Amino acid sequence: MLVSTRLLLAIAASLLPLSGAIAAPSTQPASTAPASSCQDDASRCPAWMPSQAEMRNTIADHFCELADQGRIQPRVKPLVRVESSPLNCGALGEQAGSNFVCGGEMRFVGKGGEMDTITFSPTLRREEDGRIAFYVGNDEEGEQVWRVPAPRATSATCAER
C-alpha cells in the first residue's frame, strides 16, 4: 500500500503546475475557473469526472471538517471565508467509478485579506449516492476506508458568517 500511495502522490504532484506549487496562490475566482476539473484528455479526463465547482465545494467541506476536528489550524483570525484554487484532477481509470486525484491549494482568508494556504492532492471517488469521498487509509483488516465530508454549512470553523 505504501508504494501505491507514493505512486498516487507522484501522479497528483505531476498534475499541479510547477508555478502553482512554488508561487503565491492562484487568484482566479470560481466564476472564471474552467468548468471541468481536469484537462480534456480521454485517459485522464473521462466524461464522468466531477465539475470544477463540485470539486472545489467538496474540497472546502473537507478542509473545514479537518479544522473543526483540530487536525489543521488556519493561522488567520477571524476567518472570513475558505476557497479552493482552481483544481487539476486526473482519473486513475477510464471506467465510471474509478478513483481520481485532484491537486490544488486551499485558502483560508482573514478579515484583512491575509491568507493561509494548504497544498493538497487527495485520492477521491464518487460514492453510489453521488457524493465524493476521500481516501483516509486502510482499517485493521486491510480494507480501504473512505469518508464523505460534512457540509461546510455545519462547520463551526467555516460556516457563513
Q: What is the topology?
A:
Blueprint: H1 2-15, H2 18-22, H3 52-68, E1 79-84, E2 88-91, E3 100-110, E4 115-120, E5 123-126, E6 132-138, E7 144-147
What does this structure look like?
There is one protein chain. By secondary structure, this protein is an alpha+beta fold. It has one domain. About 20% of the residues lie in helices and about 25% in strands. Strands 1, 2, 3, 4, 5, 6 and 7 form a 7-stranded antiparallel β-sheet that branches. The N terminus is likely disordered. Keywords: Signal.
Provide the structure class. Answer: alpha+beta
Given the C-alpha coordinates, what overall shape results?
A: globular
Order of helices and strands: HHHEEEEEEE
Mean pLDDT value: 80
**Range of helix content:** 10-25%
Tally of helical segments: 3
Largest sheet: 7 strands, antiparallel
Q: C-alpha Rg, in Å?
A: 16 Å
Descriptors:
alpha+beta, disordered N terminus, globular, seven-stranded antiparallel beta sheet, single chain, 3 helices, 161 residues
